[in-house]
Each structure stands twice: as structure tokens, then as C-alpha cells.
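Lab notebook, design round three. We kept the backbone fixed and only want residue identities now. Task for the bench partner: fill in a sequence for the structure below.
Input C-alpha cells:
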């Protein structure tokens, strides 16, 4: 419908302004943060225009729900705090050579793995937990099948089991808290 052309024009102009600001102020160090600021502002513009045009109200009642905050805190714990916890535990077993790996790849793989596991358990999709473990095993098998890499195999296994264990404990704790 052409009746919303004014809204499309406003969104387009604001999109251009936001992108121009991003390009003006970002540098090599701040490129990533400006990407997220840019995306956030685009979403705010779209939601604001939607609210204005449709006289909609955005329901933020979920912010008063203690279970929501508990779920969010569990997810946040499974990011960097859990990664630091695991790194401290397995620090004495870090393999000598990890030069063929991306910087911090294991940390981010672990964070994604824990968040997925947490989401699957909290939503009662236990079949997806098995799929996640199987998928990780298949991908790692090629790296770990060499007999001389037994230390790396054990290191990865310890990290994976710790990661899964922490995610399961946090998920089950969040599910069983009565609030």
C-alpha cells in the first residue's frame, strides 16, 4: 500500500543518518561496537515508526517477571564468567602448540555451546542436546584421531565435559528455582 510512503521515507532518511554517523565516528578499534550500535538504532527507528503509525503499545511487562531475569542471569553467567571458570580449571593442561587455531576460538565455541545447551534444556528440547554433542564430536573427530594428539584429545574432552556440565547445572537450577 502506498499509504505508508511517509513512514518508509522517514525510515530511509533515518537509516542514512545512522549509517553516516557510524561511518564518521568508527575506526578500526571501534568498528565492532559501532556495528552493534548501528543495528540497535535501526531497530529503535523501526519500532518507533511502527508504534507511531499503528498506535501500538509495546508491552514490557516481562521485565517485571523474576523468572525472566533469572533466565537472563543464567545465560549471562554462561558467557565470559563460565569461560573464565573453565580456563582456570584446565589451565594446567593447555597444549604446547595451539598456533593452528583461531585466537579465542575455543572460548567462543564454548560460549555458543553452553548457550545453546542452556536454551535447549530450558525449553525441554533434550533431543537437541544430543544433536549438539554429536555434532561437536563429529567436527572434532578429524582433529583428534591422531594417536600423537592424545593430550589435545583429553584437553578438549575435559573442556567439553566441563562446559556441558556447567550449562546443565545452570539450566536445571534456573528451572527448579521457585520464584
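Proposed sequence:
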Amino acid at each position: 500500500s502506498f499509504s505508508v510512503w511517509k513512514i518508509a521515507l522517514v525510515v530511509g532518511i533515518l537509516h542514512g543518518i545512522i549509517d553516516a554517523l557510524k561511518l564518521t565516528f568508527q575506526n578500526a578499534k571501534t568498528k565492532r561496537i559501532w556495528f552493534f550500535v548501528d543495528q540497535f538504532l535501526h531497530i529503535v527507528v523501526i519500532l518507533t515508526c511502527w508504534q507511531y503509525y499503528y498506535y501500538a503499545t509495546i508491552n514490557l511487562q516481562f521485565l517485571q517477571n523474576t523468572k525472566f531475569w533469572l533466565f537472563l542471569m543464567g545465560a549471562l553467567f554462561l558467557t565470559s564468567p563460565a569461560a573464565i571458570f573453565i580456563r582456570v580449571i584446565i589451565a594446567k593442561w593447555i597444549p604446547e602448540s595451539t598456533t593452528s587455531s583461531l585466537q579465542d576460538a575455543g572460548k567462543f565455541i564454548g560460549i555458543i555451546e553452553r548457550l545453546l545447551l542452556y536454551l535447549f534444556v530450558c525449553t525441554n528440547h533434550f533431543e537437541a542436546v544430543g544433536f549438539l554433542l554429536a555434532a561437536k564430536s563429529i567436527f572434532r573427530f578429524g582433529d583428534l584421531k591422531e594417536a600423537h594428539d592424545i593430550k589435545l584429545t583429553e584437553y578438549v574432552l575435559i573442556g567439553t565435559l566441563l562446559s556441558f556440565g556447567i550449562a546443565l547445572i545452570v539450566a536445571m537450577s534456573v528451572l527448579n528455582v521457585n520464584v
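Keep this in mind before ordering anything: The chain has two domains: 2-58, 62-176.
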